[in-house]
Design goal:
By secondary structure, this protein is mostly helical. α1 packs across α3 and α3 runs antiparallel to α4. The longest helix is centred in the middle third of the chain and has 23 residues.
């Protein structure tokens, strides 16, 4: 259960990062509220998962999922570069997250 919560929390990290960008410095109310809610749920989930998962592993997986998710949204929906080197680097992060889970 802790791993499932950790993955969902990582996805919520990507959600709050995108909402933060869209909030335009907290001047837009809807993205600002999405940011706060996603941030609280993400941190709460991370906190819950760290009851059973070591902090080094849990935090690295959480950040990795959030970073990859945010970068993918940027590339697929926000017009950021989707160059081969960027995609390969994201695959390395994914491989690291999978490795941390396997060798936990």
């Amino acid at each position: 259960m802790a791993w499932l919560v950790l993955v969902i929390s990582g996805l919520l990290e990507a959600a709050w990062a995108i909402a933060l960008d869209r909030s335009a410095g907290f001047s837009r109310p809807v993205p600002s509220v999405v940011f706060v809610v996603a941030l609280l749920l993400s941190m709460g989930g991370l906190s819950y998962a760290l009851r059973d998962i070591p902090v080094g592993t849990g935090y690295a997986v959480w950040v990795g999922i959030g970073a990859v998710g945010t970068a993918l949204v940027g590339m697929l929906a926000l017009g950021e570069s989707a160059s081969l080197p960027r995609i390969l680097c994201l695959l390395l992060v994914v491989a690291g997250v999978i490795g941390l889970k396997i060798f936990h």
